[in-house]
Amino acid sequence: MLSNDVQQLLVGYVDAELTPQQWESASRFLKQSAEAREFVLGLQADADALRKLPRRQLAPGFPEKVLGAINDRRLHGSRHAKLAQASVYPAWIGVAAAAAVVFVVGIGALVYLYSMRDQKQKIAVAKNEANRSAKSSEAGAVIKEKENSPAPNKEKAPPPESSASADVAASGDKSISSDNRPVLEFTTDANVVTETEPVRRLEVFKELEQVELSLSYSLRDLDQPRLQERLKAMLTKDKAFHLTLACPSTAKGLERLQSAFQAKGVKLLIDKAALTRWQKGLKTHYALYSEDVTPEELTAILQALGADDKKADSKQRFNKAVINHLTPANRGEICTLLGVDPQAKSAKSKGPLGVDITQPLSKKTEEQLADSLAGKGNPRPEPGKAAAPKTPDRVALVLSYNPVRISPASSKEVKQFLATRPAQRPGALQILLVLRGS
Amino acid sequence: MSGDDHRLIADCLNGQTAAFGELVRRYQDRLFNTVFRLVDSAEDAQDVVQEAFLNAYQSLDRFKGDAQFFTWLYRIAFNSAISLKRKQRSIVSLHMDVEGQGSVPEPHDASNSSQPDLALERADEEQRIQTALNRLSPEHRAVLILKDLEEQKYETMAEILQVPIGTIRSRLHRARLELREVLEKMEGQVQR
User: Fold this and answer.
1) Checking CA distances to B141, which of A116, A417, A418, B117 falls within 20 to 30 Å?
2) What is the CATH number of domain B114-192?
3) Residues carrying CATH 1.10.10.10, chain B
4) What is the mean pLDDT of each run of 10 residues along chain A (438 residues)?
5) CA count, 13 A, side-chain hemisphere, A64
6) Which of A419, A413, A53, A403 is nearest to A200 (CA)?
7) Which residues in chain B touch residue A58, judged by CB atoms under 8 angstroms apart?
8) ipTM computed for the complex
């Protein structure tokens, strides 16, 4: 059997593709090996057979057919034709045109995005205005219980009453209010409180333009005369303020606030839902609303809290206090919390002694009698002593701020606060104090 | 490259399409015969040759002239033919379909008409060799056709097929052995 190398050498021999040395060695090998000779004869016979294959020829007219195809397909073989066919513009023109298109599209997109942003801002401002005017128109209206009030001892989000809550409903998450706070719903005699936790969010500085006017400090530093003067100066500049106090334990913080306000003759009227959360120690941010505190009283309250802070446990301290002028957004918040705009004129006509003439006399008497029996009414004069001069109770309302209560209309305390609050004294401040956990 | 080819190509590049007609006339039969043995179909071979000429015409300005025009033309035609054959490989019949040759132009051999027996014998032999060729891979078939039919040197074959000379050498070795084996098998089948 011939090796592969020998076979390849002999193939080269048949093809006449050998060097003289290879030719010589192939010839020598062929003389010696009969097998090699037979192998070469076989290859030569095959090659001869292939060479003897008849020559095929194309039918006449093939060149004309090819030229016809060239014309039909409009092919160009000449340099001139190709040059004529080539673009009259240099290649860089295309690149420049593409770059110009990209640039124009980019600028257009930028302009469009800016205009969209402005439009969105305008829509947001318009919505705020609409909300505010809608709430103002509700002022003084008789607060009705919701027709579809939920079953007793159960809490669930009711159908949205305001456009804000309508937005929430539209967003599909009924447990979140328009300003991203979870909402609470209470029945008139709610005993069960949703143990929803406040949502982490920034509750301060809603409007950036007010930031420069805000006063931020630690209550413990209020013993510094310079800071006291700044606080007083700020409180005398306006009639409405938004305060934010941060305290690790809002339950303890509310306790301390209650003491401080009571020391200045301001009683805290706590909404039942907020009260339940407070008593249970649930994580809650509280809102305190008052219209009957003077700048001096507020300063004193804050000073007292600051003084207490130094003694208090770290969990009870008010780490931060921020005071802002009440912004339109804050007023909107107050409207949301109370269900009405407290500054709008009441539709309820009252008599000269604060008697609601829309209510039957028997009902007023009934309420007074109930309050008296509960020890809430004016103290009865002791026998033989003249009655003490009547001083109207100053009340501040406390509500759950986060989770927010979305149906203040059903709160007895809110109704009571709105119904019994006296006309705002001259010099008294309208304040919304938010106590939030830190 | 021959001086005539050079002049005709220059004329083509100067816009004289008729000069390309002359080039076609000069190489058409040689190319057709080679391609026909490769694809074993007159129609396919004619299409391949026509496309090869059209591609060559379009790319004429890229022809550098450092090789023969015919080598360059063969390269184009062989690439097309081998691609076509690879596509058809799955449907290639091992037996020659004599009836299917109806559209194939008959061999233009004047001597056949005067000697009918010899013509018949040659036709049988052609069929036998073509059948054996058809059993080889397109690459092996190509080297055998180029070497034995076209009598090209290894170097030119390497240029046409765009492979190294060593590959041509080994490919031819395997192709010849394979052809030998196929022909022997066919002879054995006939004797039985």
Assistant:
1) B117
2) 1.10.10.10
3) 114-192
4) 87 90 90 90 90 85 86 68 56 87 93 82 70 56 42 43 42 48 52 60 50 69 84 87 90 90 90 89 90 89 88 81 87 86 61 56 68 62 56 82 78 87 85 88
5) 3
6) A403
7) 28-29, 32, 46, 49, 105
8) 0.79
- Selecting from A52, A75, A79 the residue whose C-beta is nearest the C-beta of B57 gives A75
* Contacting residues for A66 by C-beta, under 8 A, at least 6 apart: B20, B21, B24, B50, B53, B54, B57
For B149-187, the pLDDT digits (tens) are 889 999 999 999 989 999 999 999 999 999 999 988 888
Residue type, A301: I
Residue intervals in chain B for CATH 1.10.1740.10: 1-91
Q: How many residues does chain B have?
A: 192
For A9-66, give the DSSP string. HHHHHHHT---HHHHHHHHHHHHH-HHHHHHHHHHHHHHHHHHTSPPP-PPTTHHHHH
Question: Is domain B1-91 in CATH 1.10.630.10, yes or no?
Answer: no
Contacts for A51 with CB less than 8 Å, ≥ 6 apart: B148, B149, B151
Residue A10: Cβ within 10 Å count: 23
Which residues 168-187 of B have a C-beta within 8 angstroms of A? 169-170, 172-173, 176-177, 179-180, 183
Comparing CA positions, the residue from A327, A312, A340, A307 lying closest to residue A434 is A327
Instruction: Output the pTM of the full model.
Output: 0.42
